[in-house]
Design a protein that fits this description.
Layout lengths: L4 H8 L1 H17 L9 H8 L10 H39 L9 H4 L7 H6 L2 H119 L1 H9 L4 H29 L9
Helix pairs in contact: 4-7, 7-8, 7-9
InterPro entries: FF_domain_sf, Prp40-like
Protein name: Pre-mRNA-processing protein 40A
GO molecular function: RNA binding
Length: about 300
C-alpha cells in the first residue's frame, strides 16, 4: 500500500489546522448548512465571504472540504439507519393493527396509533404519513396478489375440470367403441349361427324334397304295377269264361248245389283280399294316405 505523505503532512502542518479552524468558525458564524451533494466550488462560494484575510490555499480548502464531506456522509448514514429502524418499528405497529385495511386513509386511522411510542419517536408527521401510505400500498398489492392467485386458482380448477370432462368423454367413447365391437362380434356370431341354421334347414329341406320325390316315384311305380296286374286279371277273367263257356254251360246243365256256390264265393273273396293286401303294402311303403298325399 502506497502512503500519501502529502496527506499525512497536512495533519502536522500548523497552517492546515489554522485554516481548518477559520473555515469551521465561518460555517458556525454564517450558520451554513453543508449538504453531501455539494461540490468543492459550492462549498467555496458559501463561505468565501465569511473568511477574512489572509486567504486559504486551494489545497487546504480541498482537504477541509473532503474531511467535512466524509463526516457528513457518515452522519447521514447513521441518521438513515436510525430512521429506517424507526420506520420499521412504526411499520410493524401498523401491521399489527387489524382495523387498518387496503381501503383505509390516514385521517381515519391516525387515532389508532398517534399515542404510541413508535409514532412519537419518528417525530415528523410527514414521515409517519409517508410510512403509513407505504403500508397501504403494501396492503393493496397484497389484495391484488390474493385476487390474482384466486383467479389463477379458478382458472386452474376450471382447466382441471375441463380436462377431467375430456378424460371422462374419452373414456366414455372408448367404452362405447368397446361395446360396439362386442356387439359386432355378437352379431357376427349370431349371423354365423343363423347362417348355419339356414344352411342346415336348406339341407334338411333338400333331403326332404329328395325323399318326397323318391316316394312319389315309388308311388307311381306301384300304381302302374297295380294297374297292369288289375288289367291282366281282368283279361284272364274275361278269357276264362270264353274258354270254358262250354264247361260252364255244361255245369249249368248240371244240377245246382250249395257246395259249388260256396266254392265260388270263397274264390272271389280270396282275390279281393289279395288286392286289398297289395294296397295296404303300398300305403306302408309310400305312406300314401286316404287323400292321396304322401305322408
Amino acid at each position: 500500500m502506497l502512503v500519501d505523505w502529502f496527506s499525512l503532512k497536512k495533519f502536522f502542518s500548523p497552517q492546515y489546522h489554522e485554516d481548518k479552524s477559520r473555515i469551521k468558525d465561518a460555517i458556525k458564524l454564517e450558520k451554513i448548512i453543508v449538504i453531501s451533494t455539494w461540490t468543492l466550488e459550492d462549498f467555496k462560494d458559501a463561505i468565501l465571504d465569511a473568511i477574512s484575510s489572509p486567504p486559504i490555499s486551494d489545497i487546504n480548502f480541498k482537504h477541509v472540504f473532503d474531511e467535512l464531506m466524509e463526516r457528513i456522509k457518515e452522519k447521514e448514514d447513521k441518521e438513515s439507519k436510525k430512521r429506517q429502524r424507526l420506520a420499521d418499528d412504526f411499520y410493524d405497529l401498523l401491521y399489527s393493527i387489524k382495523e387498518i385495511e387496503a381501503s383505509s386513509i390516514w385521517e381515519d386511522c391516525k387515532q389508532l396509533f398517534e399515542d404510541s411510542q413508535e409514532y412519537r419517536t419518528i417525530g415528523d408527521e410527514k414521515i409517519g404519513k409517508e410510512i403509513f401510505e407505504n403500508y397501504i400500498t403494501f396492503l393493496e398489492e397484497k389484495v391484488k396478489d390474493k385476487e390474482r392467485k384466486r383467479d389463477e386458482e379458478k382458472v386452474k380448477k376450471e382447466k382441471e375440470r375441463e380436462e377431467k370432462e375430456k378424460k371422462k368423454e374419452k373414456e366414455r367413447k372408448e367404452k362405447e367403441k368397446e361395446r360396439e365391437r362386442e356387439r359386432g362380434k355378437e352379431r357376427s356370431k349370431k349371423d354365423e349361427s343363423e347362417g348355419e341354421k339356414v344352411e342346415l334347414a336348406e339341407v334338411k329341406e333338400d333331403k326332404k324334397r329328395e325323399k318326397d320325390k323318391d316316394r312319389r316315384h315309388r308311388k307311381r311305380h306301384h300304381s302302374a304295377t297295380d294297374d297292369i296286374s288289375s288289367d291282366k286279371d281282368e283279361k284272364d277273367d274275361y278269357k276264362k269264361p270264353r274258354k270254358h263257356s262250354s264247361d260252364r254251360k255244361k255245369s249249368r246243365r248240371q244240377a245246382y248245389t250249395p257246395e259249388s256256390d260256396s266254392d265260388g264265393k270263397h274264390k272271389r273273396h280270396k282275390r279281393d283280399h289279395t288286392r286289398r293286401s297289395g294296397a295296404y303294402e303300398e300305403l306302408e311303403d309310400g305312406e300314401l294316405g286316404e287323400d292321396g298325399e304322401i305322408r
